[in-house]
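In full, the data.
>
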Amino acid sequence: MAKFKSEDLIKELKEDVQRLQAAADHLKNTEKSKLVFVENDGKWSVVQCLEHLNEFGRFYLPAIEKAITVKTGEKNAWFNSGFLGDYFTKSMKPKNVFDIKNKMKTMKRFTFPNSLNVDTVMKEYIDQKIRLQHLLDTANDRDLNSIRIPITLTKMIKLKLGDIFRFLIAHEQRHMIQARNTLKSTGVATDKFPVILQVVQQ
């Protein structure tokens, strides 16, 4: 399994979140009609992509906050990814900054109509990124191996805190690329869209 120096992993994840924040700021300044555009049936608009991510945040952010509120044990200098956590992360993480090749079916509870309020969705998304940054700051003083967080599929499976962060941010990157590509399909130039992936991890 993958092994990371804990401080380096947190630093890298914080930089990933900063890129997502920059992408959100870019979208915030985009014409609203472009953010609700749907290319064809079965595709999502930009705002649907963001609300999908918001729903994941509504589950994971409180769960992480609850788990790391009380410091238990000493900080571990190294994080060893678990089998499932590493698998889920690598399956989710985009392989490049241009497209999503490994398509996945989304559960109905995580799909939303295209009648969402753009401002409300955007504000929640940006607020969640600020919240995620604070959690990463707190986690820098925690053992990323011993704290466990349940996943959305079932509370019977819990992943290491380090893997939850890796998976959650990989999921964000995946759908932000989807949102960028959807925006491009409306005719909006995306050459100035912030880089979402700095380095492709294998």
Notes: Residues 3-185 form a domain with the Four Helix Bundle (Hemerythrin (Met), subunit A) fold (CATH 1.20.120.450). The chain has a mean pLDDT of 88. The two ends are 12 Å apart (CA to CA). The first helix runs from residue 6 to 28.
